[in-house]
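Listing S7. Sequence submitted for prediction.
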Amino acid sequence: MDRYSDMNKANIAGILGNVFLLIIKFIVGFLSKSQAMIADAANSAGDIFASLMSSIGSKIANNPEDETHNFGHGKAEYIFSLFIGLSMIIVAFKLVYDSVVSLLNPSEVAYPYLLIIVCIITIAVKISLFIYTNFLSKRTNSILINSLKKDHRNDSLVTSCTLISVILNIYGIYWFDGVVGIGISILICISGIKIFIESYNVLMDSSIDNSTKQEILEIIKKYDDIKKVDHFSSTPVGYKYLISVSIYIDGNMSTYDSHEIADKLEKELNSLEPVYLSIIHVNPI
């Protein structure tokens, strides 16, 4: 429940912060005719969608296992994270088109000092959200919160570029506004692709990372009675992994003693943070 509570806090903070930024960015962006600010506003709209998807996904993922979902609903996090990635890619393509049009037809922006104020407010809000979600991400190890954290970080950098384009516009360098719009679009697209690939890999049952696998094998090596390890496999269960390992033990050992070793090993592996459940198969040698 604590994990779900932390995820919910991150989503609520993201929605409230981005709704505020969306309103001021769109109003000022359209008044000033700044393509960079309009792109930044669209980015905030995407962030609101991402937070909503994250909220729904985390709520479903928090449901316990049942008769039809024996390993719980943890993969919902990755399904909704997939939606977030796709939405970011779609928004990015639309923004690239608008920004190219702006680059080919550069013009002076209106109310530049109002734009500067909005940029400074946005950077302050996004840095605050990044610090908060970074703290929650370390506690939950959630792909959804991690996606939000990266998004807040990217947004502070994006708006910094928007700020630079506004300052340059004041000095008569109008074309840079379109360049920043294109740059923001590309960054949104790259972030969306990364989130999509990470979610896709888990949904396609990618294996546990090598460092955790080696940690598990090192634990097994501590058992002198285990003569050989074979058939190591893993599959994602939400944000954790189901581990299956075959071990070989002296065939002269009693069935009770050999399974006692397997039970002890299972308990030790199950205590690892990335492990949802370990299944040990005992074979004689």
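Caption to Listing S7: primary sequence and predicted structure tokens for the chain studied. The longest strand covers residues 226-237. The first helix runs from residue 2 to 32.
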